[in-house]
Amino acid sequence: LETSSENNFVELGGSWRAPFYEMTICFQKPLGQDEAGTCDVQKRSSPLFNRVVRVEENGEAEGEFQGRLYVLPKGSCFMTTDFTHVRDLIPDNPNTGYNLIVIDPPWENGCVRQKEAYPTLPNRNLLYLPVQELAHPAGALVVLWITNREKLRRFVEEELLPSWGVKDPTEFYWLK
Predict the structure, then answer these.
(1) Nearest-angstrom CA–CA distance, 140 and 21
(2) Cα–Cα nearest to 145, from 111, 117, 113, 176
(3) Nearest to 123 by CA among 143, 100, 101, 144
(4) Domain locations in the chain?
(5) Helix (H) or strand (E) holding 61
(6) Is 100:131 a contact under the CB 8 Å cutoff?
(7) Long-range Cβ contacts of 4-10 (<8 Å, 24+ apart)
(8) In this structure, are residues 84 and 119 in contact, taking their beta carbons and an 8 Å threshold?
C-alpha cells in the first residue's frame, strides 16, 4: 500500500493488510543507581488496528510506525479502529474509565468527492456510541471534531451530546 509522508490511517485501516500492521513501542527503564544514568530500552510490537494499545509502564513510551514516531504518555491507551470495535474499550471495572475521549467520526456528507475519499457513517449511528460507559465516573473531557455544517451542528447540540450525557459543551475553532 502506497502512503505519502503522512500516514492515512483511514486508508491503512481499510486495507486487507490492516490486521498485520504493528507499532513498535519503546519503553525506557532505569537500570539502577548507575552514574552514567543509562537506561535499559525494552521494545515490543503491538498490533496497530482493532486492538487497544496501552502504556502502563513507569513513564512515557515512544511508538514507531512506518518511520514516524509518536509520543505515548504514561497511563494512556488508544485504539485505531472503526466503530465496530469501540466496545472493546469499555473498562471491566466500573470505577475506572477514560479522562479524555477523542472522537473524529466519519460524518455523513453530501459531497460526492468526500464520499469517494473515505467511508462515512450515518450520523444517527453515533447516538449509540457508549460514551458514558467509556468515561471515568468522576467525569471526562470529550473532544468531538465536527464540520461547519449548520444541520450537523444542530444534530450534535440537540441530540448527540445529550444522548452521550455531555454537559457544558464548549466550542473551539481549528483554523487551518
Answers:
(1) 30
(2) 176
(3) 144
(4) 1-81, 91-175
(5) strand 61-65
(6) no
(7) 7/65, 7/66, 7/68, 9/80, 10/106, 10/118, 10/119
(8) no
Burial degree of 84 (CB within 10 A; 0-12, 13-18, 19+)? exposed
List, in order, residues 6 or more apart from 133 with CB less than 8 Å away: 90, 97
SS3 assignment, position 26: strand
pTM of the model: 0.69
Please compute the mean of the pLDDT values over residues 10-39 and round it to a whole number. 66
93: exposed, middle or buried (C-beta count within 10 Å: 0-12, 13-18, 19+)? exposed
Give the closest residue to 106 by CA, choosing from 25, 19, 37, 14: 14
Residue with cell 464540520: 147
User: Sign of the CA dihedral 38, 69, 142, 12?
Assistant: negative
118, 108 in Cβ contact below 8 A? Answer: no
What residues contact residue 43 under an 8 Å CB cut-off, 6+ apart?
24, 25, 26, 27
pLDDT digits (tens, 9 = 90+) for 29-58: 654 444 554 456 678 888 888 777 888 766
Which pLDDT belongs to residue 111? 61
Q: Per-residue pLDDT for 109 more than 90?
A: no
Residue type (1 letter), 39:
C
